Please model this.
Amino acid sequence: MLGVYGLGGALGVLAVAALLATLTRSALALVYPLCAIAAVVLGAVDLHVLLSDGSLSASLPLGLPTIGLRLRLDPLSAFFGIVVNGGVLAASLYGLGLDRRTELTPRVEPLFPIFAAAMNLVLIADDAYGFLFFWELMSLSSWALVVARHTDPESRRAGHLYLVMAALGTVSLLFAFGGLAGPAGGYSFEAIRALPPGPAVAALVLAAALVGCGSKGGLIPLHAWLPLAHPAAPSHVSALMSGVMTKVAIYGFMRIAFDLLGPPAWWWALPPIVLGALTAVLGLLYAVLDRDLKRVLAYSTVENVGVIFVALGLALAFKANAFSAAAAVALTAALLHVLNHSWFKSLLFLGAGAVLHATGRRDLDGLGGLIRAMPRTAVLFLVGALAISALPPLNGFVSEWLLFQAVLAGPTLPQASLHFAAPAVGAMLALAAALAAACFVRVYGTAFLGRPRSVEAARAHDVAVVQQVAMGLLALLCILGGLLGGPLAGALGPLVREIANSALAAGGGPTPLSLVAFDARRSVYDAPVIALFVAIASLTTLVIVHRISERRTRRGPAWDCGFPDPSPATQYTASSFAQPLRRVYGTVAFAARETVTMPPPGDRAPAHFSVALVDYAWRIFYAGPARAVLGLAQRLNALQFLTIRRYLVLMFAALVILLSIAAVTT
Amino acid sequence: MKLAYEISHLLAGVMLVVSFALLYQQRIAAVLNAFAAQSITLALAVAWAAWSEDRPDLFITATIAFLLKGIVIPVALHRTVTRLGVHREVEKVVGVGMALLVGLALCGLSQALVVKIAPVAAGLARDELALAMAIVLLGFLMMIVRRNAVTQVVGFMSMENGLILAATGAQGMPLVVEVSVAFSVLIALFVFAVFVFRIRERFDTIDIEALDRMRGDRR
Model:
């Protein structure tokens, strides 16, 4: 009962915060403290429900008459609630550090608590009406945050595309729930669970759910809005959208595919696995080639959503074949990656926000040398970059390791297509992991190392203490999540067991903190031992390098190959770092073409080097349909200028044709 | 019982014949008279159904049909036409022969449709449904083949006559529904009337094609 009051109270606090901020300008500063408090309370309730493996439910006489609004917080919702509220807490802490006079606007702050509340409410909705309503509220409030800087045409374009994609997603979810409810029309989740649809309807529902949730999460080819919209919002909102809102999309897919749709068939696994693997690789190829810091992060979110979908697809495949141990591994990998990604992606976006605040720039080629100007942010960003590159002993490695364990178990699946897909997907995920590391070496190297490439980068300064605390909290979670992977997986045990009929064995490994995937002889990850090894190895290297560098000064040849040109433009740039990867993958994936224009001999004009990329996904899935719709609309436009009699003729003809069809067919 | 059906079929058949008459009338006054005849036949048909099937509420429907559509509306439209002083010929889009052929085809369509969809158990009521549907379709056809606003109103009212006939044939249509249908039709009629006057005020004609000149957005 206390939990229900806690939920209601915290959501009430969010509503009050939004209301106050709408009413008076002086209350804008109250928004973030209130949101932080609400996030703590909501997170505590979620944590309690997850650990006690219980559930809270309430039915409110709101919404549609005679139906009302059913709410229920079960362990799955509670897990995602922890993800959401962790992100909200960090973003609110970051928001506390915003300048009260210049950075708080009535365009952003009133919407922030609405956005946070909508995400929480999507998770606890227990009928299709509530789910879709709060889903749409979440979409619209985040859209309003994206277009907060509406004077910027880029921002407006991003908002427009986001609105179109959000509408597509909601319509598609509407169909998914329509299929789930069936002809009887029971829209509460309880009624849907009681009557799982037949195979044909299940296929349609799954496709609609993939489109609906994939468009929100950024599954290729529905990803195009994400790298435009996420960076366009204020940075702490970007962190929420990228780190948290994509997880709500994954919650939606899990709720439908693992809960409402009944026992899975093996072929349900194919679309998420194939699309997820494609998304993972292509997302990172986009990220590696992009030069905008926040856009790189958004593309990397696309990659991580792909990785999570692969894990979910594998879990579906294993579950359909009753391989419950492997299903548990894949599902734990998916859930842990959801948690981990929400932490490090929020951390990286807050870090990017700090960089943007300090320099006013997002283009990587205009940054550089920030490690000296903003050392604390640099260290925290480094933790995030290492975690997202899945380097042990940080948290990204735990979930990716578990995922690869699940992929390695894939060839035991009896169906030929899955049997052969598993190694291919494993190879693509390995490629994605390597590209992720390259991508973040590039980001960190160009933004924080080297020398400043612009005046703004040279004049940068570290951000407010509370903003560093927000990032520090997330960095701490990334480190702890890496070291405590075993206990974390154990804590998810009851939830995983509920869905996959099995869970990872808690303990049983060589040390109390070790994570055991299948059995202790075959697959064990001991984070503390690895951490110790990494620490010893790097300290030894450090000492050796230090010793060598302290030796007597050496004399070299007197030209400047050993010492760079004083101009910062001679440094390795983000584009030059990306060039080898662009040449290897870009020619296939983006039809990349490099052209060098040399001036004629004797002319002293500068030579030009340019790269042309083709975004096939955009061309095929966006530009093509948009042109078709426009062309059709132009044709049909003539219908708007008929005479009254012609309209009547059209109606009459339609009526007569329908009647004739009825007369012939029945 | 058999005789009751014969008589109601006869009345419905008369209404259908009047519908055809509406299609080929040349003069507005004749169109209005034909419409009045159709409405009075409708009132008779409904009254007969009320008496033979012992459904007294249908007498109210019959009275409404007789008073409103048989007398008030035709008289009002007559007076409108005289007051407007429009020329009494009806401008046609399609020739009379063509309109009648299309009307015949519509009758065939409605008969074929009703035979297909209505349950056999409905028995003799099926034929009445087919007649009513043919009247509705002919009313719609009349709205299309005439360019005059008054005849469009008449076509619309004639469709409504068909609907009421169908409702009488169908068992158990509550009076509330009928009354609401009648009222909505009445309101639509007012709208039409205002519309006709406005057209007349602006263009000195009630040829609806004149309206199209007023559309600046025409491509």
Summary: The interface with chain A takes residues 93, 106, 109-110, 112-113, 116-117, 137, 140-141, 143-144, 147, 208-209, 211-212, 215, 217-219 of chain B (CB under 8 Å). Helices of chain B lie at 2-24, 28-52, 57-84, 96-117, 125-145, 149-169, 175-203. Chain B has a mean pLDDT of 79. The longest helix of chain B spans residues 175-203.
